[in-house]
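User: Could you check the structure of this?
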Amino acid sequence: MSDNTHIDTDTTTTPMKKELVLVVDDHPKVLRFIEIDLKLRGFEVVTTTSGEKALELVRSAKPDIILLDIVMPGVDGFEVLSKLRGFTQLPVIAFSASQGSRDDALRLGANDFMAKPFHPDEMVRKIEALINR
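Assistant: Sure, the predicted structure tokens are below.
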């Protein structure tokens, strides 16, 4: 793919479908940390630093869940949530260093919220709880 997005579709070693997580954060180092952690735990991961690109990836990559940073330049997480809920009920876990974002994120349709910094185990517990509903 031209945008360096990679989705592993080889199922010869894993009979079960891997869950695809879309991670959206404007900080590349945070994205990379989350991506590595989730891949080590058996998830497929697609990442972007752009809220606008996230909306495109929801339609093209068809993720099972989204991890969405709220505070981003341009199209922020609140706008992404608002637009997402216009066409999908895909599970979304919003996150932010600003605890004040929690209520607005949940009101706009996020299924859960995590305050930054968060522990990777907490992140995975929340992902699995929403995917396995």
